[in-house]
Amino acid sequence: MKQEIPYKIYLDETELPKYWYNLRAFMKNKPAPLLNPVTKQPMTEDELSEVFCRELVKQELDDTTPYIPIPDEIRDFYKMYRPAPLVRAYCLEKALDTPAHIYYKFEGNNTSGSHKLNSAIAQAYYAKQQGLKGVTTETGAGQWGTALSMACSYFGLDCKVYMVKVSYEQKPFRREVMRTYGANVTPSPSTTTAVGRKILEEFPGTGGSLGCAISEAVEAATNMEGYRYVLGSVLNQVLLHQSVIGVETKTALDKYGVTPDIIIGCAGGGSNLGGLISPFMGEKLQGKANYRIIAVEPASCPTLTRGKYAYDYCDTGKVCPLSKMYTLGSGFIPSASHAGGLRYHGMTSTLSQLYDDGLMEATSVKQTEVFEAAEYFARVEGILPAPESSHAIRVAIDEALKCKESGEKKTIVFGLTGTGYFDMYAYEKFHDGKMTDYLPTDEELEKSFAKLPKMD
Ligand SMILES: *Cc1c(COP(=O)(O)O)cnc(C)c1O
């Protein structure tokens, strides 16, 4: 059994973590390895290093070191906006008239507006260390692209962002924030890459998807000297960086002698949830505590609740390694009416394994219910939440209402991953009563599952 590091040496006087918490080190059933899409053999460090930064590849493959020191340069940047506040939602508790105690960890207190900056700054740091000129990436709603632009400008790196075309057009202000930080933003699919041209030929007029933008960003990185590709979710290294969320949360709760009963987070690719639960799940895996952990996903993109646990492509163009994960199929694109984010077809392999082992739960919620919760929360707690984060708010409220029914005084902690200032079109749709709920049919999902790669 691994020993927990006492918090004294885990944190410094600013209560900023000194180590990332590598949850995989505590897992008996490790997440399945990434496979080469051609040979179907585990990806080696050298193969991965052609696409990703070397040190990040090491972190990606390390499932044994429990605590990984955070370099001082990264901690200096974290100090600008961390520790992030852990807030007792007194107003929400009162409004709901619940005996439950509700806490949220707020990650929206930085200019990029979300938790994504925690990994962006780490990834930019390692790219700089390696002497690279720049990095490429994709962005959907724009939070990751914004965070990475900030991180790259801090370290003087070039940043090329492929932004899903519908978002590029619907969120001009996101785009301009990225350009303010010096990033180069291209709507995807584009004619600047072979894979983009191929997708455009096959689907003329398409608004693009995350999977497609990933393929373009990977191609661009591998074709340019001194560039690597970076990804804002899904990968183990991203969960590792996001563990600062969980370590800070646990430290603060421990300090006040509070033990949570339920921990809730929204799940797109799984990075914020994986980060938030890391030290708690670590205890659970060691039999030291038992927490209920709930992943919340959109009913229109129900990866854990209706997906298959299988090896799949991480991107539409099938250029990335294969990952064993809960997936809806790499060709799955949520309905155009879906405005709540969390659109990725897969789920990080770490959470997929934990879910498959029955160590956490998952639930899906409809977007109209999500926006109801978002508005309610904004009115009582003041913060304007991101639609993604509001999935967690929805379930936190539902659990608090169950406590009201049963009279149980449970402690609920949820991750409030970001702010919703750039999501006002979605809020507008909701306020105008134009938001609809579309759930994929079983036939649609079966069609998508039929295209999963054959593994024998
Ligand atoms: C990207 C994002 C998410 C979802 O990503 P995960 O990797 O699942 O954490 C959730 N909330 C916000 C605000 C985001 O920007």
- Bound ions, cofactors and other small molecules, one mention each: pyridoxal-5'-phosphate
**Count of alpha/pi helices:** 19
Question: Could you tell me how far the N terminus lies from the C terminus, measured between alpha carbons in angstroms?
Answer: 36 Å
The beta-strand count equals 14
Strand content range:
15-25%
Number of domains: 2
Plain-language structure description:
With about 450 residues, the protein is of the alpha/beta class. The chain folds into 2 domains: about 15-70 and about 115-230, Rossmann fold; about 85-115 and about 235-450, Rossmann fold, CATH 3.40.50. About 40% of the residues lie in helices and about 15% in strands. The chain contains 19 helices and 14 strands. The chain has a 6-stranded mixed β-sheet, sandwiched between helices. A 4-stranded parallel β-sheet has the order 7-6-5-8, with helices on both faces. Strand 9, helix 13 and strand 10 form a beta-alpha-beta unit. The protein is globular and about 60 Å long. Pyridoxal-5'-phosphate binds next to helix 13 and helix 17.
